[in-house]
UniProtKB/TrEMBL annotation:
Pfam families: DUF87. Gene3D superfamilies: P-loop containing nucleotide triphosphate hydrolases. This is AAA+ ATPase domain-containing protein. Residues 24-213 form the AAA+ ATPase domain. The lineage of its organism: Bacteria, Pseudomonadati, Pseudomonadota, Alphaproteobacteria, Hyphomicrobiales. It comes from the Bacteria. Residues 488-502 have a biased composition (Basic and acidic residues). It comes from Aminobacter aminovorans. Residues 479-502 are annotated as: Disordered.
Length: 502
């Protein structure tokens, strides 16, 4: 399912959009000097994508905590132990809650250690919780410095390792890195090199302009243009945005940062007694009122974990009747079946990970206004595998098919769809699926892998594979008492139309 995020206006007055699904797969690097509008760009991206994907913001200055009021992000204060941060990060992936890790008030080394512990906790989450997450890291040069600074080597190594995992290995775990930096020269090259999408803002130093031009595939003489970019204007390039360098003016945002750029304001009128006002001794009560109070204590870890574990109710005014009609259980199940069948009909779905498919399923459920809690990932995998088998209603009600469903439960989840596709052909007496169809069901294009899957089923004692003198293959299911008709393993007529054309 393609979701376009509108970032602002492109050249020619057209809308500048980011393909969110492509961004999750290819990552993003944002560069611009202080005051160029990086934080504004990140805020726009976060606000526009908040309804579609889980988000995690590594916030060294506490600028993004205001997202909590508008979009329900949980603010995690980093003033706690590394073990606590790691545990909270694991709970965040499990419960799919958008968060802001507030590192404000910590020194640089503490920020590096806290961010590393949090990122590692998300990276090490169990496979069942590898849902897509947009991980935004502001001031990334602090956490992935190109050279050693005043911090200890241990802190730099831990932080750089976490950032490298995020950008290099995070995609397979559903983590999509979006990193922003003031200077490319200060950012570790192995971290910056993993991004395929770029938004380059105003910069002045020759080394940064040259590196930005290289990343965008521009000539060195064109690098001077980065000095002339206005605040909030960037040059975009990448598969999620544009195949050619595209000027983009970032649009407005709904929330604001706690810290804003300084504004000029007129000085007060000077008076003759100004010196007396400055040096006059203050009354006792005045001196007492200017004493700073201690900052509030951070929220206990137990409270944050409890907050993450709760199902957050939607804030809405009480109404006499529900806005949307209520579904009974039968209608709800029929709606789920309809959504799953629509997903199966998409040829590209076969090559998506389970986490991406489940995210698409949840979005479709919201679009259809499905009532109640959606099925968990394990149940979705099962229903998706059954739907991919293409079984008709009459055959699905037979005892033989029900027995085949019971046999498939003993297999790993990623093999159940393949088993059921072959089983339904046997139950119906249809020709054995081709290598291409079996590979497509597994999410691959490899005919060799398809043959290995059949060999695996045979080794488990579930099927018997035989090839006749004409090279046609049939698969028998001894426990079911049925067998497929002979079929040519090399044919392509049983593939989806789009796959067969390719």
């Amino acid at each position: 399912m393609k979701v376009g995020i509108e970032m602002g206006a492109a050249s020619g007055g057209t809308k500048a959009q980011v393909d969110l699904e492509e961004l999750l797969a290819t990552r993003l690097l944002v560069q611009g000097n202080s005051g160029s509008g990086k934080s504004h760009l990140l805020r726009r991206l976060l606000e526009q994508s908040a309804p579609w994907v889980q988000q995690c913001v590594i916030d060294p200055e506490g600028d993004f905590v205001t997202l909590a009021d508008k979009f329900g992000h949980v603010v995690v204060d980093a003033q706690r132990t590394e073990a606590e941060l790691t545990r909270i990060a694991g709970r965040i992936r499990q419960h799919r809650v958008s968060v802001v890790l507030n590192l404000e008030g910590l020194d640089v080394e503490q920020q590096m250690r806290g961010a590393a512990a949090f990122l590692n906790g998300m990276f090490d989450a169990e496979r069942d919780f590898w849902y897509p997450v947009l991980v935004v890291v502001d001031e990334a040069q602090l956490f992935a410095p190109a050279i050693a600074g005043e911090v200890s080597d241990e802190a730099r190594k831990i932080s750089l390792g976490a950032m490298t995992n995020l950008m290099c290995r995070g995609r397979k775990r559903g983590l999509a890195g979006v990193i922003a930096t003031q200077r490319l020269a200060k950012l570790a090259k192995n971290v910056a090199a993993e991004a395929s999408n770029f938004l380059m803002g105003r910069t002045f130093l020759d080394i940064d302009m040259a590196r930005a031009a290289d990343l965008l595939g521009m000539e060195r003489r064109q690098a001077e243009m980065f000095r002339d970019l206005a605040r909030g204007n960037f040059i975009a390039l990448g598969p999620a945005m544009s195949r050619r360098p595209l000027p983009v003016a970032i649009g407005p945002v709904e929330t604001s940062a706690r810290s804003v750029s300084p504004k000029l304001m007129p000085l007060p009128d000077a008076s003759e007694d100004t010196r007396d006002l400055i040096f006059a001794p203050a009354p006792l009560e005045t001196r007492q009122t200017v004493r700073r109070t201690a900052p509030p204590a951070p929220t206990p870890t137990a409270d944050i974990i409890a907050q993450l574990s709760q199902v957050r109710a939607e804030a809405s005014a009480p109404v006499a009747e529900p806005i949307f009609p209520l579904f009974d259980e039968a209608e709800r199940e029929a709606l789920i079946d309809t959504i799953v069948r629509e997903m199966v009909e998409d040829p590209d779905a076969a090559f998506r990970t389970d986490a991406v498919l489940y995210q698409d399923f949840l979005v479709r459920c919201r679009i259809k206004r499905m009532q109640g809690e959606p099925p968990p990932l394990s149940m979705f995998r099962r229903r998706y595998a059954v739907a991919r088998s293409g079984i008709d209603e009459e055959t699905a009600s037979s005892d033989t098919w029900q027995q085949a469903l019971g046999m498939s439960v003993t297999l790993p989840e990623d093999l159940q769809a393949v088993f059921l596709i072959v089983a339904q052909a046997a139950v119906k007496g249809a020709p054995c699926p081709s290598d291409a169809a079996i590979a497509h069901a597994y999410g691959s294009h490899s005919a060799r892998r398809a043959r290995r899957l059949l060999t695996y089923f045979e080794e488990q004692g579930l099927v018997v594979v035989r090839t006749d003198f004409h090279g046609k293959r049939s698969v028998a299911f001894p426990e079911l008492g049925c067998e497929t008709a002979p079929g040519d393993p090399e044919r392509t007529d049983d593939l989806p139309e789009r796959e067969a054309a390719e």
